[in-house]
């Protein structure tokens, strides 16, 4: 069975965005881009909430075509255009979306159907609201966290309304020159 791995930048105090959704505190450099690029290139399915999907869709399809495109932009744009996208949204319709599935109801059943299909890990990018919903339904199988060396004090937390403990096994760690630490966990 395929696994859903939540890919998230997080502050030391557990926030994934500022109070107004700001992410200007996230440190990303070539070292992190290269590391992440290798890992996600193995993925064939990306999972997003509506807001994150719309943000990605507004940038990545043509990012690699721009004259000033970086190596990362070119590589990630190619990956984004070929990967199957799954979007959790109660308001979007998928009538004209290429290579994209919208899930608006029966979340647990629909996600479990996707997990049963052939393929690699399903990578859940950002999307705090979608992540919260999937956590509540015990549908996330792993957490790929990039802990940024900052304390925000307030913002959008990664973990909310957890009613049962979620035991994790640490698979790998990595320290980047920027001070960001990668923590890769699988749900026990």
Report the end-to-end length measured between terminal Cα atoms.
15 Å
The CATH homologous superfamily name equals Dihydrofolate Reductase, subunit A
What is the number of domains?
Answer: 1
Strand order of the largest sheet: 5-4-3-6-1-7-10-9
Low-confidence stretches are none
Q: Strand percentage, roughly? A: 25-35%
What is the share of helical residues? 25-40%
Mean pLDDT: 93
Going by helix content, strand content and strand pairing, the class is alpha/beta
Give the tally of β-strands.
10
Topology:
Blueprint: E1 4-11, E2 15-17, H1 30-40, E3 45-49, H2 50-63, H3 71-82, E4 84-88, E5 100-103, H4 107-116, E6 122-125, H5 128-136, E7 142-148, E8 156-157, E9 168-175, E10 181-187
Parallel strand pairs: 1-6, 1-7, 3-4, 3-6, 4-5
Antiparallel strand pairs: 2-8, 7-10, 9-10
Helix pairs in contact: 1-3, 2-3
What does this structure look like?
By secondary structure, this protein is of the alpha/beta class. The chain has a single domain (16-155), classed as Dihydrofolate Reductase, subunit A, CATH 3.40.430.10. It contains five helices and ten strands; from the N terminus they run ββαβααββαβαββββ. It has an eight-stranded mixed β-sheet with strand order 5-4-3-6-1-7-10-9, sandwiched between helices. A two-stranded antiparallel sheet has the order 2-8. β9 (168-175) and β10 form a beta hairpin. The protein is globular. The protein starts with a strand and ends with a strand.
